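Let's sit down with a protein and look at its sequence and fold side by side. We need material for that, and I hope you will provide a protein of your own picking. Once you have written the record down, we can walk along the chain together.

***
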Amino acid sequence: MLTIAIPTLNRGRVLCDTIAQLLDESSSRESSASPRRLDDSTTRRLIGEILIVDQTAEHPPDVAARLAEWERDGSIRILRLPEPSIPRAMNTALREARHPFVLFLDDDIVPSPQLVAAHLDAMREPGVWAVAGQVLQPGEEPRHYDEALLHGGVLPDLEFRFHHDAPCDVQNVMAGNLCVDRARALAIGGFDENFIAVAYRFETDFARRLIAAGGRIRFQPAASIRHLKAPGGGIRVWGDHRTSASPAHSVGDYYFALRHVPDFRAYVRRRLRSNVLTRYHLTHPWTIAPKIVGEIRGLLLARRLFRGASS
C-alpha cells in the first residue's frame, strides 16, 4: 500500500476533480480530457490514504464543504500549511505519511487506470528508491525517443522527455508523478527547502542526491498521468516567467547549478541564451529588460541561499 500525497495551492475545484477520480467517483468537471477511472477494487486497495497538503488561504464555500465532507468520512486527510512552499509541502507529506511508499501527484491531473499498480511494481525492482511516472502535458501523446537524445544534454537527463514511452533508469524526476521510498527519501533529508518560490529544479536536485546515496530511479511510462495545466494557482501565482522581473522563476535553476554543475559560468550563459534570446522576446522586445532584471536578481539570491546552505 502507499500514501498518495497531493500538495495544492489555490486550485480547489480541480483538486476536487482529481480526488474524485482517485476515489473512483465520477468527476464533476467538464473537460476535453475525459476522466478515466482507476482500475477495480484491487487497485483501490493499494491506496492506503490520500493526503492533501493544502497551502490555500481560503477555498470557495462549495469547495471547502466538499473537502470537509471527504475529510469527515475518512476518504482524505488534510494538512494545512500557512505559507506556500512546494518542497516544504512535500517534506510535510513525507513526515506525516502512514505508508512506506509515497506517491506525489499534482492537483490537476487525469490518472491512468494502472497508475498506482505500475508505480508499486516498479518500486519492487532491486535497488529502486524512486519511480518517475509518465507525464503527458496538454497536446502530448506517448512518444519514443532515441536513447542518445533522451539522456543527453549538459547534464544527464536534465531535459528528460517525460512523455517517453519505454522504461529506463533516469537521473531526473517530475514531482507531479513521483513515487518514493519514504524511509530512503527522509534519510537523504527530503526535498531542499532552499528552493523557494517556483522552486525550479528542486526535483532534479532531489534525484541527484538520491542517486548519490546509492539508489536507482526508474522511469515507468505505464504509471501515466495527463497533466491538465489548470490556469491559476500552483506556480502560476508567480506570474509569467517570460515577462517578470521577479527572481522567483530563475533562482531555483541558479541554486541548482551552484550545487551540482561544475562549470557554473557556462551554465549561466546557457540559461541566459535559452531564456532571454527567445522568439517571444525578439517579438516582444519591451519584455527583455524586466526579464534580464529577474535573471540577475535570481542569480544574486541563489548565491545567498547557497552560501547559507554551505555555512
Summary: The longest helix spans residues 288-310. Residues 239-310 form one domain.
